[in-house]
Specification:
The complex is a heterodimer of chains A (195) and B (155). Chain A is of the alpha/beta class. Chain A is built from five helices and nine strands; from the N terminus they run H-E-E-E-E-E-H-E-E-E-H-H-H-E. Chain A has a domain of 130 residues. In chain A, strand 3 and strand 4 form a beta hairpin. Chain A is elongated, with a radius of gyration of 27 Å. Chain B has a domain of 106 residues: Nucleotidyltransferase, domain 5 (2-Layer Sandwich). Chain B contains three helices and ten strands, in the order αβββββββαβαββ. Chain B is elongated and about 80 Å long. The N and C termini of chain B lie far apart (66 Å). Classes of the chains: A alpha/beta (195), B alpha/beta (155). Chains A and B meet through helix 1, strand 1, strand 2 and helix 3 of A and helix 1, strand 1, strand 4, strand 8 and helix 3 of B.
Chain lengths: 195, 155
């Protein structure tokens, strides 16, 4: 090889440097997509607030979770797998049964005058309840609402509720929400488990 | 080896140039830099989040504040659940101040949109979670999210 005055800089190591950076980014990054169940906490009430009017027992769906991760739903021991169906029946009350929530007539946009149940779901857990069960209960209750809303959306608009939300059809979504409003109330937890 | 800028047909058979290899790798590098998010913190607690089906994706990740709760990774610290805020262990009463500092990092208009995400280990007892929730209520950080992975919830 003939001699040259100014030898060029070897760019071969450039690839190594870039690879090093690449590996660094591969290692320091997380691929997990962050997802979660969105909830809203109740605001703290001023102490001089008048007490809200009591809710009739038949309108409240009581879910209790104890420190052994057992569920007591409306006074009966229940497995988590049955919770969704029970909650759906309670929320909808299609046969207008005496023990299930009262119906009131509401003028809902799009749907017109409709019977809407005065349901409220009350959830109370023990300080010893596991977080996993708590999330499962929240999930099942949300699923009950979502399935009912879905059935209504399919029935009326021929699309799923999820599609309505994704397509930002606010009027339709809000109308469905008026028919099946999600009312999950969380009571202050008790500490009876002894742990 | 010839010069990079040699004229075509200058000297016999040219070697295959590897000069474009760095460019290819850089493209890969930029792809990863753009599509990935930096790991927010070094986890000091063991967190395996529960699975759920009714979950949503965060619309804007920069608005999310994470609170980690789980047993410490350092076994010398025992097994009872601890709270991690940012990079350090914290107590329940520190939660309010932490939320306030996080709020200071955002525009005032964005403050009501801030979400607090619970990354809580599935075996944690609810007691500590409820205490944190009460602290959040005190500072009116009411939008929360229970981080979960998509999947069946029970067998």
């Amino acid at each position: 090889m003939p001699k040259r005055d100014a030898p060029e800089i070897n760019a071969g190591s450039m690839a190594d440097i870039a690879f090093l950076l690449l590996v660094f980014f591969l290692v320091t990054t997380t691929m997990d997509s962050d997802m979660g169940m969105m909830r809203k906490l109740p605001p703290t009430l001023p102490p001089d607030m008048p007490k809200p009017p009591p809710i009739k027992d038949r309108n409240v769906f009581v879910v209790l979770a104890n420190s052994n991760d057992q569920l007591l739903v409306e006074g009966e021991l229940m497995d988590i797998s049955e919770l969704k169906a029970a909650a759906k029946e309670f929320i909808e009350n299609p046969m207008n049964i005496e023990t299930l929530p009262e119906m009131k007539t509401v003028d809902v946009p799009i749907f017109g005058v409709r019977q809407v149940s005065k349901q409220v779901i009350s959830l109370q857990n023990d300080n010893g309840t596991s977080y996993e069960l708590y999330v499962q209960v929240q999930n099942e209750l949300a699923a009950a609402y979502n399935e009912l809303r879905d059935e209504l959306a399919q029935d009326k608009f021929g699309v799923t509720y999820k599609q309505l939300v994704e397509n930002k059809e606010k009027a339709k979504v809000n109308a469905i929400k008026r028919v099946y409003p999600q009312r999950i109330s969380e009571a202050e937890p008790k500490d009876v488990g002894g742990h | 080896m010839g010069s990079k800028f040699k004229k075509e047909g200058g000297r016999g058979e040219p070697a295959i140039s590897t000069a474009s290899l760095p460019d290819i790798v850089f493209i890969l590098l930029f792809f990863f830099m753009v599509t990935t998010v930096m790991r927010e913190v070094d986890l000091k607690v063991k967190v395996v989040v529960p699975s759920a089906t009714e979950i949503q994706k965060f619309k804007n990740k920069s608005l999310v504040t994470y609170i980690y709760i789980g047993s410490p990774t350092d076994e010398k610290l025992g097994t009872s659940a601890r709270i991690q805020l940012g990079d350090a262990y914290a107590e329940v009463q520190d939660v309010g101040a932490y939320i306030e500092t996080r709020r200071g990092e955002h525009d005032e208009a964005e403050v009501p949109l801030l979400i607090t995400a619970f990354k809580v280990d599935r075996s944690t007892k609810m007691g500590i979670v409820t205490e944190v929730k009460q602290e959040l209520r005190k500072v009116s950080a009411l939008k929360i999210s229970y981080s979960s992975v998509e999947g069946i919830t029970f067998k």
